[in-house]
Amino acid sequence: MGEFDVITRYFSSLGSGEFVDLSVGDDGAALTVPPNSELIVSTDSSVLDTHFTDDLFPEDLGYKAVASAASDLAAMGADPLGMTLALTMPTVDDLWLHGLSQGLARACHEYRLPLVGGDTTRGPLSLTLTVMGFCPPHQKLLRTGANVGDRVCVSGYLGDAAFGLQVMQGKYRGLEIDFDDQDYLVSRFTHPTARLDLGCRIRTLASSCIDLSDGLLRDAAHVANASGVRLAIQSAAIPLSSALIAAVGKEQALQFALNGGEDYELLFTLPPDVDVPSEVTVIGVVDEGMGVHCDVTARSQGYEHFH
Ligand code: ADP
Ligand code: MG
Questions:
Q1: Is pTM beyond 0.90 here?
Q2: What is the pLDDT of residues 144-154, one digit of tens each?
Q3: What's the rounded Cα separation, in Å, for the pair 62 and 70?
Q4: Angle subtended by helix axes 58-76 and 179-190, to nearest 10
Q5: Distance 120 CA to ligand 1 centre (A)
Q6: Domain-located, residue 142
Q7: Which of 86, 110, 135 is the last residue before a domain boundary?
């Protein structure tokens, strides 16, 4: 099967959407950016053996690549427009491509990100997704803008994905974990949730925002540095799932939350006069100073791909 057949068979049916005028098939795609808004663009690569290993199901790889890219749009407060995929693979493996396209399709519907184009080449396995969204010019959320007196908020539960990865890797074989809990924890790694709706809802409320891809401490430090403030985080307030606490206990769960990566939750700062959205937890405050302060010492410095 040639490149063209791969495209028509697996990637050409995911391309329609509200803002799509021209999709897969021509030299370029055409999207309508609604009036009075800016185009928000972000690119993420997933490379075999750097970001994922070959035991990850292609469905999960496809879903996760979209969710993690969409998470950057969420962190900007953008509404989704569409995405392109640059796919490099060593051989044309039908079963694998079928799985990949299933995962892409699921995420593409869930996040309203039609696949409007891309490139398909031969080489070491990697996926590069470029996601596009839009936002009124003065409402986009940045890492800068946190002010002294703001509250620090996060969505969801932290640490589940990092622990889920270790479970998948067989590092906790001796541990007895409830079957449903294990399923849930692994799925937080394989199927993270991009908080696009939350991002849009807080774009007129929050003073700064970032998505948590590299661990709470590390990502909170980006906001602190960009905004020129100190983020003081109370460890007791950090939201931990009952599944994670049941599996490893509170203390270890907290270490996963502080240092683990790939939660793809949103961390944002809210001015004191703004109501906290219901599904969100306040974990600290913005102070004068710099960096991140947390009352628990972190054991390691989080998660990075370049060691
Ligand atoms: P060109 O040579 O003009 O770049 P291609 O043959 O690379 O065209 O691609 C043909 C069409 O298929 C284009 O519209 C391109 O955007 C789309 N396409 C190629 N690869 C992918 C992919 N992996 N996912 C989605 N669309 C793709
Ligand atoms: Mg091309």
A1: yes
A2: 999 999 999 99
A3: 12
A4: 70
A5: 7
A6: no
A7: 135
